[in-house]
Write a structure and sequence with these properties.
The chain is built from two helices and nine strands, in the order βββββαββββα. By secondary structure, it is mainly beta.
Length: 157
C-alpha cells in the first residue's frame, strides 16, 4: 500500500531561502473529508492530481495519488470547492542530503510558513535545518485539509 511518512515544522526565519533549488505554485482543495479519508485535488503548473489520504497513525498514513487532466482538476475545483482552496508557493530545498519542502501560504493562510520532510520510515534520523522551529507533525490544525476549513488568518494569535 502506498504511504506517506512525513514530519512537519514551523519555519522560524528566512535562512531556508539560501538552500532553495526549485519552486512550484500550488492550488489545491479538499472535495471530500471523513474520519477515515480525505480527497484532494491539486494543480501545480501544467499538472494535476487526485489524491486520497487515509487516517494518520504516528507519522504515517496511506496515500494514493493519480495524475488527472488539468482541465478536469480546474472544473472540480470550481464545482466542488471554490470556497476552501489553498494557495501556496512550494520551495524545494536540499539540506545535508535530504530533500525538504517549504510551503509559503497565501490568501487566507498568508503568514504561515511550514517545512516538511518525507521519510522512508518513522525511525529515520535527519538533521534539523537552522530555519525549522516547533514540530507540528501531530498538530492537525496545520494540515492542509484543516487549513482549508479553518484558515490561519482566523486563528487567535
Amino acid at each position: 500500500m502506498p504511504k506517506e511518512i512525513e514530519r512537519k515544522f514551523l519555519v522560524e526565519n528566512d535562512s531556508w531561502k539560501n538552500y532553495a533549488v526549485g519552486k512550484n505554485e500550488l492550488k489545491q482543495a479538499y472535495i471530500a473529508k471523513s474520519d477515515d479519508c480525505i480527497i484532494r485535488i491539486r494543480i501545480s503548473n501544467d499538472n494535476a492530481w487526485l489524491t486520497l489520504k487515509g487516517k494518520q497513525i504516528g507519522f504515517t498514513r496511506p496515500e494514493f495519488e493519480y495524475q488527472i487532466p488539468v482541465a478536469d482538476a480546474e472544473e472540480m475545483l470550481e464545482k466542488f470547492s471554490h470556497d476552501n482552496q489553498i494557495l501556496k508557493k512550494r520551495f524545494f530545498l536540499d539540506y545535508k542530503g535530504n530533500e525538504w519542502i517549504v510551503d509559503v501560504f497565501e490568501k487566507d493562510n498568508a503568514g504561515l510558513v511550514v517545512a516538511e520532510i518525507e521519510l522512508e520510515n518513522e525511525n529515520q534520523t535527519f538533521d534539523l535545518p537552522p530555519w525549522v522551529g516547533k514540530d507540528v507533525t501531530m498538530d492537525f490544525k496545520y494540515t492542509n485539509s484543516s487549513l482549508a476549513e479553518y484558515p490561519y488568518n482566523k486563528w487567535k494569535k
